[in-house]
Amino acid sequence: MAESHENKKELLLRACRFEPVDRVPVWIMRQAGRYLPHYQAVRARHSFLEICKTPELAAQVSIQPFRVLGVDAIIVFSDILIVAEAMGMPLDVPDSGPVLSNPVHGMDAVRRLHDFDPARETRFLGDAIRVICEEMGPQVPVLGFAAAPWTLACYMIEGQTRGDVSTAKRILEEEPAVLRELLARISCVTTKYLQAQIEAGAAAVQLFDTWACELTPAEYNEFELPATRAIFDALKTSAVPRILFAKGSARHLESLAQTGADVLSVDCHTDLADARRRLGTSVALQGNVDPSILLGDENEIRRTAHEAIEKTAGVGHILNLGHGILPSTPVENAKAFVEAGRTAIASAHR
Which end of the chain is more exposed for a tag (fewer CB within 10 A), N or C? Predict the structure, then answer.
């Protein structure tokens, strides 16, 4: 684990800004979750949404990976569908997965959605960030997040998160005006939602675009690129790094770089060395070890983490996974991944 005097926030911010660092910072997507016994214990006593909406509980499970794994950033515990609920869609999260009632089909349904005030309807999230910042102090970065517009639109149209976005694709093809209106509304509220997280103390914010992989390059440029860029452009004055994760990043790499993101978090099917060649030093990179690697041998975990860092020469890079950590991941393997990031960059700077 890193020394207690280390300024992890400065480390992360320097990596985001493509400035020299002593070592690559490392954190793990979905690091506060089901693979941790502490989270399981909290979850046994409280519902998922109760944890999300109780600042003290959300802060507790957010901080746990920092204490257990020694990661360099704390991402606040929440869910990307909180925005959809705040826009007027009833949300339930049974064990089988989240469900949004009254899926959005047609322009009338889009226009029934409403704007919301993050200081009121989703104040619990800002309060959770404030609790984390107060407990951890100014040297530990807290990350805020939200869904990218297309991804949230998919869930709002489908009403669930089971992997089928065929209805959203049909609306894109047959009713493009409906999708554009929905994306515009999501973009507007997401901007304010992230601004509230920044005001609460978030050192950086990340958009998750899980379903970018379902868009052709032309579709991405026509629909998702303008909506995502609108969010990042509006956040530019805040001066906090803007991170964009996109599944299927290889096919959209140049377009992703046009969103205004400071950091592109690429999936495990995107070669980091190729991404660096294509993008140069215009944007930092995050990722991109395959989460399944953490199910195996610790030597392989270390080798894969070191290889990822070598591909970027340890500059303008945040070590992470190419998607969320799997629930069956042994905690010791997650620790090995975090430690591998430190040892790799330490040897690279000798």
Answer: C
